[in-house]
Design brief:
Elements lengths: L5 H26 L22 H10 L7 H30 L9 H22 L4 H26 L9 H26 L22 H4 L17 H31 L3 H23 L4 H26 L4 H7 L8
Length: 345
């Protein structure tokens, strides 16, 4: 049987890089307060692009009098949608190719089909983000969907590459890596909740918050997941105590995740996977530094977007770690790895 071609791998890798760009564009859209730059979906004020002519802008104002046109924010939103649409086409191509080559040795099928379903769901979340006016639950779910799409595309690229050797590892190390991945996903969800509720600046000092180790907080309202659908959530609806609770929750989560990832890096180093350990430690250090900079510099846009990038890259490092520790080589690759050391990199 034929094995997946370089074209298959190249397409998956291109989709992965495009997904990373879409994640960054989504972060920029959210952090520049352009999430409602177009009040409708999939167009913008009833147009395929942002209306630029006087006549088009007059029509836009007439159609959506409650949402005055801001051209710059409209283009930020539409550029994000254009690239997301292109990503959808690439994922569709991967799914079609997988169906055509489903009998090939080493050709994943369920993963490309799952990705296609996820991208369709992401499109729905993109629509609901606008129609539900940045409802935090939908915004956070949309962010998680973007990170999931990126991670699954990276996993598909790893599987199609034929270049990443599986590494035999103790069960305890595999469990630690799996727990680290799950906890990081939870922390990313917390970060999304911080962003969607505009709580990033609820504390502007470190390591204290408002000069106190434990200021007034309202966790019940901060993490009230059945908030009313209907208000415009641009700028947030929560009071200071609720936003402080969200911010502190993210800080505490970051501390727990950092300690667990450091422990994983040490275990990887001791197991002989020194490159993976160093890569994980470097990604973690970068992400922690960006998180601290966000607070001390009062959330500059560039640093905030970079923090999203850091989270995405750290997640991909953990995807790589778990893949290396859990992967089983297909028959066409086993001979290649037969003479390798059990934990060879």
């Amino acid at each position: 049987m034929a094995t997946p071609t370089r074209t298959d791998f190249g397409l998956a890798l291109a989709a992965t890089l495009l997904a990373l760009l879409v994640v960054l564009l989504g972060a920029y859209t959210r952090l520049s307060h352009a999430g409602l730059g177009c009040p409708d979906w999939p167009g913008c004020y009833g147009f395929l692009g942002v209306p630029m002519s006087e006549h088009g802008q007059a029509l836009a104002e007439e159609r959506f009098p409650e949402a005055p046109l801001e051209v710059a924010k409209g283009w930020i939103e539409m550029v994000h949608r254009y690239f997301a649409g292109l990503l959808g086409l690439l994922v569709l191509s991967l799914a079609v190719q997988a169906l055509r080559r489903r009998v090939a040795d080493g050709q994943p099928l369920r993963l490309p089909l799952a990705l296609l379903g996820l991208v369709v769901l992401q499109a729905a979340f993109g629509m609901w983000t606008v129609t539900l006016k940045l409802w935090p639950q939908v915004v956070t779910a949309h962010l998680l969907g973007g990170f999931a799409t990126l991670s699954l595309l990276f996993l598909l690229s790893l599987r199609l590459s034929g270049r990443v050797a599986p590494a035999a590892a103790p069960r305890g190390l595999r469990r630690l890596a799996g727990a680290a991945l799950a906890l990081l996903v939870a922390q990313i969800a917390l970060g999304g909740w911080v962003s969607s509720n505009y709580a990033a600046l609820a504390c502007v000092d470190l390591p204290t918050c408002h000069g106190q180790w434990w200021p007034d907080t309202d966790f019940a309202n901060g993490f009230h997941l059945t908030q009313q659908i209907g208000p415009n959530y641009l700028g947030g609806q929560l009071d200071s105590a609720a936003r402080t609770a969200i911010h502190l929750g993210h800080r505490l989560g970051a501390l727990v995740v950092a300690l667990l990832l450091l422990a994983l890096a040490v275990r990887l180093w001791r197991a002989g996977l020194t490159r993976l350990a160093a890569l994980l430690a470097l990604a973690l250090a970068g992400q922690v530094s960006l998180g601290i900079a966000n607070v001390l510099l009062h959330l500059p846009l560039g640093v905030a977007v970079a923090h999203n990038l850091g989270g995405a890259l750290l997640l991909q490092v953990l995807v790589l770690v778990n893949y290396r520790l859990r992967a089983v080589a297909p028959a066409t690759q086993r001979a290649r790895y037969a003479g390798a050391a059990p934990l060879a990199e």
